[in-house]
C-alpha cells in the first residue's frame, strides 16, 4: 500500500528526514513512535503534500503510484487521508457542507455519481452514530467551539465518510481524555481494519495502542527508522523511554 525508500526531506533548509525507509502493506496498521523532533509530523506532512516540505532524495509509492507525481488533492482522491494533531477551525462553513463537498469532489475526480443532500445526511448520521457523536454537531461550523475530544471524534467521522485506503493519523490521541481515546480507537478499528486498507499511526505514547493494536511498531529517531518490532515494542518504549530503545 505504502512504500517509502531512503526518504530525505528538509523544512526551511533544515534536514529533518534522513534516509527513512518503511513499507506498510495493505491490511496492516503500523505505529510510528519517537521523541519530540524526531520527524514524525514532518513525515505525515511530506506524505500529504504540505507546502514548505522539500523532498531532496528518495521515493514513495502509494497503491503502486508515484506519490510525488501527484498533487495533494490527487492523493486524497486516490484514497489517502491525513488526520491532524490539531484540526483547524473553519468559521462560516458547516461541517455537513464541508464533508459533503469533500466527498463529492472525490466522486467527481473518479467519475462517480455524487451524493444528493438526503443521501449524504443519512451517511453522515450513520458515521456520527458509529463514533458516538451527536449528529447535530455537524451542523455547526467546522471545529468552532469544539473541545479537543469533539474535534478528534469529528475527524473520525470525516474519515469514515471519506472511506480512505490509507489513513495517516498524526498524534490523533493528543489531548484526549479516556472516553475520547476509546472513541477514536473504536473509530480506527471500525473504519480501517480491512484487508484492502492500511493505517500509519503516529503517536508519542503507548496508550492509544491499548485500543488499536498495531501489526508493527517503528521507532523514528533523528529522521529515520532505527528499530522495528511487534506491539510489544510499544510496551518496551513505555517502560524504558526512547533514549534506551533508540540508542
Automatic annotation (TrEMBL):
Concerning InterPro entries, the annotation shows: AAA+_ATPase, ABC_transporter-like_ATP-bd, FeS-cluster_ATPase_SufC, P-loop_NTPase
Do you know which Gene3D superfamilies this protein is assigned to?
Answer: P-loop containing nucleotide triphosphate hydrolases (3.40.50.300)
Q: Which residues form the ABC transporter domain?
A: 2-247
Q: Which PROSITE patterns match?
A: ABC_TRANSPORTER_2 (PS50893)
Going by the UniProt record, its keywords in alphabetical order are: ATP-binding, Nucleotide-binding
The keyword ATP-binding appears for this protein: yes
The protein's GO terms of the molecular function aspect are: ATP binding; ATP hydrolysis activity
One matching Pfam family, short form? Answer: ABC_tran
Q: Which family does it belong to?
A: Belongs to the ABC transporter superfamily. Ycf16 family.
- In its UniProt entry, what is this protein called? Fe-S cluster assembly ATPase SufC
Amino acid at each position: 500500500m505504502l512504500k517509502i525508500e531512503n526518504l530525505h526531506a528538509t523544512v526551511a533548509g533544515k534536514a529533518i528526514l534522513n534516509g527513512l525507509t518503511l513499507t506498510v502493506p495493505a491490511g496492516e496498521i503500523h505505529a510510528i513512535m519517537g521523541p519530540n523532533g524526531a520527524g514524525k509530523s514532518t513525515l505525515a506532512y511530506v506524505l500529504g503534500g504540505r507546502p514548505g516540505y522539500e523532498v531532496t532524495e528518495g521515493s514513495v509509492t502509494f497503491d503502486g503510484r508515484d506519490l510525488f507525481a501527484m498533487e495533494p488533492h490527487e492523493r486524497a482522491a486516490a484514497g489517502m487521508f491525513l488526520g491532524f494533531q490539531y484540526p483547524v477551525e473553519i468559521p462560516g462553513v458547516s461541517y455537513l457542507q464541508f464533508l459533503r463537498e469533500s466527498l463529492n469532489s472525490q466522486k467527481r475526480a473518479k467519475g462517480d455519481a455524487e451524493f444528493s443532500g438526503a443521501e449524504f445526511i443519512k451517511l453522515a448520521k450513520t458515521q456520527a452514530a458509529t463514533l458516538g457523536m451527536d449528529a447535530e454537531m455537524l451542523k455547526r461550523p467546522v471545529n468552532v467551539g469544539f473541545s479537543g475530544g469533539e474535534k478528534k471524534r469529528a475527524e473520525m467521522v470525516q474519515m469514515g465518510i471519506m472511506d480512505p485506503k490509507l489513513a495517516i493519523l498524526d498524534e490523533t490521541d493528543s489531548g484526549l481524555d479516556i472516553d475520547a481515546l476509546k472513541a477514536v480507537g473504536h473509530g480506527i478499528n471500525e473504519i480501517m481494519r480491512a484487508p484492502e486498507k492500511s493505517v500509519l499511526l503516529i503517536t508519542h505514547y503507548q496508550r492509544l495502542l491499548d485500543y488499536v493494536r498495531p501489526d508493527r511498531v517503528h521507532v523514528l529517531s533523528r529522521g529515520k527508522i532505527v528499530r522495528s518490532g511487534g506491539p510489544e515494542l510499544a510496551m518496551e518504549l513505555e517502560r524504558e523511554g526512547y533514549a534506551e530503545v533508540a540508542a
